[in-house]
Amino acid sequence: MKKSPQLFLIHFAGGNCYSFGFLEIFLNRYFEIIPVELPGRGNRSREKLLIDFEEAARDIQQQITNRLAAWPFLIFGHSMGSYIGLKVTNELVKIGQYPTCLIVSGSSGPKVCTERTSLLSQQEFIHKVQTLGGTPPGLLENEELVEYLEPILRADFGLSEQSNLVDEPALEIPLFALMGNLESEVNQVGNWRRYTKRYFEYKIFEGGHFFINDHPQSVAQFIKQSYDKATLLQYREIAG
Predict the structure, then answer these.
(1) Tens-place pLDDT, residues 61-85
(2) Which of 26, 28, 43, 209 is most buried, by the most CB atoms less than 10 A from its CB?
(3) What are the C-alpha distances in Å from 235 to residues 80, 101, 229, 232, 240?
(4) What value does the mean pLDDT take over residues 156-170?
């Protein structure tokens, strides 16, 4: 029986292994879905939050290597997950584990970060999180939820802010990018082209930072089509 390709999902800031459930229902007929998560949330809520990007990337890489099987796999990451995805993919390649492709979402690519959202006052920080979307209206006005979510969100924003991947080596695999047309940096999504020596393609969806919530079926279709395209390119290279 032919095994389905493994699809590893890396969550956004404040997310966990359940964050992509709305996508999984459109993807599980094509892939073996494996959502990974950082400590301090979801199934790992009793573990200490990570505040170092390199350590966070190693944590995610270990989860992926622990689950890798002897058939193709690909990686998808949204926002913070896109940065971790790039770092992890490069580290996997170093040990001879090549994803069929990397798919990044909700980000215009690595850059020198000058904004320190993670250091804002509570009021400013919560307002910033709300402007990004992805949380139900009024959710962060609940004091108990804020007490639980704020440390997780601050830690994750800090990870993105210190990721420093501008000089990360270009990948030897195809890279695909997705972004919402209402994002302030949407015109810079082509920046991701610098991070692959192979095929690159991007698509713009209607919506803001969490456009994926509004177009789950279309996003899932793009993931499937990206994998198919990367697989075809791989076969053509082998055929010479």
Answers:
(1) 999 999 999 899 999 999 999 999 9
(2) 209
(3) 31, 13, 10, 5, 9
(4) 90
pTM for this prediction: 0.94
Break the chain into its structural domains and give their ranges.
6-110+165-239
Instruction: Assign domain 6-110+165-239 to its CATH architecture.
Output: 3-Layer(aba) Sandwich (3.40)
Dump pLDDT digits (tens) for 215-225.
999 999 999 99
Q: Are 80 and 104 in contact (CB under 8 A)?
A: no
